[in-house]
Sequence to fold (263 residues):
Amino acid sequence: MSQNTNDPLVIAGVEYTSRLLVGTGKYKDMAETEAAIQASGAEIITIAIRRTNIGQNPDEPNILDVLTPEKYTILPNTAGCYTVKDAVRTCMLGRELLDGHKLCKLEVLGDEKTLYPDMPATMEAAEILVKDGFNVMVYMNDDPILAKRLAEMGCVAVMPLAAPIGSGLGVRNPHNIRFIVEEATVPVLVDAGVGTASDAAVAMELGVDGVLMNTAIAAANKPVLMASAMKKAVEAGREAWLAGRMPRKAYASASSPESGLID
Fold:
């Protein structure tokens, strides 16, 4: 584990200063989207190809006119896809619209109620995309074995959920996240479930390489302010992880030495 608090996040050979990745959905307008993302300090922004225009609808506003590929790394995602075929097709569309861009975030959902990933379908789609030359960052459940298999397959990052998408419940199973981190050979990013800044800090303190969020910022009463809070929380959580927390103890322990006390 590096002790350098300025160590970069490296994904598919590219270095990033920020360990906070953010989505672009659910904001009230483009201006709020842009302001919140700027406040977050994020360098990687994820865009749902099936829900957001990045050029496939020439008569509609293009989000890339506001959030340009020159300023941000665009991470097209397959949100809303429930089959292997739809997910693969969506990634190919994103690559075409972004002039051969290889980075993608793969989601293959299992049902509409929980938005949990369909892992057999996710594994199948990931294998197809990796073989086709994509740099796949994959949304998954918090299963350490599957995380290992996806890394071995060639995915460039694994992204276990902390809690259901959009739930804001925080990290519900920290032990599994730690198991994934301990065995990781690729970056591990918590994806889904963060609700507030303390959740982001907790996730980073588990040793993950980054956190991706959307609803936690966009659904806040003041999204731009929450984006700023999330930036600080991710940075603080990373520093705390590198520093190493004190051991937990059952009883009190004096902060000051007891020797030399005045009678």
Notes: The chain has a mean pLDDT of 93. Residues 223-243 form the longest helix (21 residues). The chain has eight helices and ten strands.
